[in-house]
Design a protein that fits this description.
InterPro entries: ATP_synth_Bsub_B/MI25, ATP_synth_F0_suB. It comes from Daphnia pulex (Water flea). F-type ATPases have 2 components, CF(1) - the catalytic core - and CF(0) - the membrane proton channel. CF(1) and CF(0) have multiple subunits. Pfam families: Mt_ATP-synt_B. Keywords: CF(0), Hydrogen ion transport, Ion transport, Membrane, Mitochondrion, Mitochondrion inner membrane, Transport. The protein is mainly alpha-helical. It has a domain of 44 residues. It contains three helices and two strands; from the N terminus they run ββααα. Strands 1-2 form a two-stranded antiparallel ribbon. It is rod-shaped, with a radius of gyration of 48 Å.
């Protein structure tokens, strides 16, 4: 089978056309079955069905129209409350780091004090030795 498309002849297989029409078959069957069930007394829809249907439609409409703006607003609020909650924790972390630095400084000071005491002890020993040497020198010359 040849078809004329934009001034050119093109071949199309007849089988592809028949499969195209069969794709809508299940949808047509579902629509026909739903119409049959709703038109007879087999499936009876009461006023609650229509109320639920209208609420569902309004819900979908609200989500489509207001969903993105509401999501942005709520994300901003959540971020703000997270920042408030984390502020105390962050402050405690900063204080703990400051205490660690102060503790290291105190350790360095205590090490320096120990070095000064050791130097003072050595100097005292040297002074005592000098005093002993002077006494022995005095005793030997007098």
């Amino acid at each position: 089978m040849h078809r004329k498309r934009c001034g050119k002849l093109s071949k199309t297989s007849p089988s592809s056309v028949s499969w195209q029409s069969l794709k809508s078959g299940p949808y047509t069957f579902r629509l026909g079955s739903a119409t049959y069930l709703c038109s007879t007394k087999i499936y009876i829809m009461e006023h609650e069905f229509y109320a639920g249907l209208s609420i569902a439609i309004m819900g979908v409409y609200a989500v489509k129209k207001l969903g993105s703006g509401t999501a942005k607003f709520l994300d901003a609020e959540v971020a703000k409350s997270d920042a408030e909650m984390n502020a105390g924790r962050d402050m405690a972390i900063v204080e703990a780091k400051a205490k660690i630095v102060a503790g290291k400084i105190e350790q360095d000071r205590s090490l320096a004090m120990k070095m000064l005491f050791d130097a003072a002890k050595r100097e005292n020993v040297v002074l005592q030795l000098e005093v002993c040497l002077q006494r022995s020198a005095r005793q030997s010359f007098f």
